[in-house]
Amino acid sequence: TEDELQAGFDATIGRNDRIEPRDWMPEGYRKTLVRQIAQHAHSEIIGMQPEGNWITRAPSLRRKAVLLAKVQDEAGHGLYLYSACETLGTSRGELTEKLIAGAQKYSSIFNYPTLSFADVGTIGWLVDGAAICNQVPLCRTSFGPYGRAMIRICKEESFHQRQGYELLMTMMRGTDAQRAMVQESVDRFWWPALMMFGPPDADSPNTAQSMAWGIKRNTNDDLRQRFVDMTVPQADALGVTLPDPDLRWNEERGAHDFGQPDWDEFLQVVKGNGPCNAQRLAHRRRAHEDGAWVREAAMAFARKSREQEAS
Ligand code: FAQ
C-alpha cells in the first residue's frame, strides 16, 4: 500500500541511506529533485558563457588552454546532471526546452557580465569557491545519482577554484594597473557570489522540506557563513579588499559578521531582469537551434545502426 511504501521511504531517509531511481518516492520528492538538479544543470551550461566570452582574448596560450579546459568541464558537469535528472523520468530534451522557454531557472550569478580578464580569475576564486561550499555537502544528498555526480564535479571544481586563485595571485604580483583590475573585479562579484546560496533562511520556501528529505544538508545561511569564513583569509593572502564595511571577525561566535547582499536586486535577477538574462537565454536558444542538424544526424545514425543490427 501507499502507506507502506511511504514508511519504507521514510526509513531509508531516516537511516541516511540513498534513494535510487527504481525505489518508490513521494511525488514531491521527485519534483523537488528535478527542480534542483535541472537548475543546477542549466547553471553549468549557461555558466559557460561568461567565461567563454574571454576564450578568444586570453592573454597567452597557457591561459587560453586552461580556460578552454575549464569551460569544457562545465559542459561535462551539465551533462552528468542532466543524466542524473533523466533517472527521475525527465529527459534532457524536455529540460532544455524549458530552459530556453524561460520556464526553468539557473543560478543568478551567470547574469552578470565579464568585463575584464580578471573576471576569469574572480569567477574561479569566488564563484567556483561558492559552488564548492554548496556542493561538497551535496555529495551526501539522499538521491544516489545526484550525490555520485557531485563527487566528480567537486573534484573538478577544486581545480577550477585553484586556477582562478592562481590567476589572481599572478595579477596581484604584476603592475598597479593589474592590481586595480583585480580589485575592481572582486568589487563587482562579491555580492552576487553571496547571492548564489539563495535567499536568507527565513525567506527560503524550500529549505525545511528539502532538509527533511536529505536533499539539502545545510541551510542557505549556514553555507553562506561557511563561504565567508573560508574566503576572508584567502582575500588577505591575495591582498584584495572585500567590499563590505560590516565584515569583521566575531570572537564570540567564532565566525565573521558580514553585511547582507541587496535582496531586491537578487529577486530582480531571478525574475529575469538582471544585466545579462536576455543575452544568456538568446545565446543558448541560438546554440540549440544551430545544433538541430547534429541531433537529427545522431538520430538518423542510431536508426540506421538499429536497422543493420536487426537485418
Ligand atoms: N539563483 O527555497 P530556496 C555552478 C531560487 S554553481 C537563481 O532557497 P532551494 C558551477 C530557488 O530555485 C551554481 N535562483 O530554494 C559553476 C527557488 O525557486 P523555485 C549552481 C535561485 O532550491 C561555476 C527560490 O529561489 N549550483 O553552476 C537562487 O532550496 C562557475 C527560493 O529559494 C546549484 O544549483 C540563485 N542563486 O535552494 C559553473 C547548486 N537561489 O525553484 C560555471 C544546487 C535560490 O522554487 C562557472 N542547488 N533560487 O522557483 C542548491 O543547492 C539549491 O537549489 C539553492 C537554492 C541553494 C541554490
From TrEMBL:
<protein>
    <submittedName>
        <fullName>1,2-phenylacetyl-CoA epoxidase subunit A</fullName>
    </submittedName>
</protein>
<dbReference type="InterPro" id="IPR009078">
    <property type="entry name" value="Ferritin-like_SF"/>
</dbReference>
<dbReference type="InterPro" id="IPR012347">
    <property type="entry name" value="Ferritin-like"/>
</dbReference>
<dbReference type="GO" id="GO:0005829">
    <property type="term" value="C:cytosol"/>
</dbReference>
<dbReference type="InterPro" id="IPR007814">
    <property type="entry name" value="PaaA_PaaC"/>
</dbReference>
<dbReference type="GO" id="GO:0010124">
    <property type="term" value="P:phenylacetate catabolic process"/>
</dbReference>
<dbReference type="Pfam" id="PF05138">
    <property type="entry name" value="PaaA_PaaC"/>
</dbReference>
<dbReference type="InterPro" id="IPR011881">
    <property type="entry name" value="PaaA"/>
</dbReference>
<dbReference type="InterPro" id="IPR052703">
    <property type="entry name" value="Aromatic_CoA_ox/epox"/>
</dbReference>
<dbReference type="GO" id="GO:0097266">
    <property type="term" value="F:phenylacetyl-CoA 1,2-epoxidase activity"/>
</dbReference>
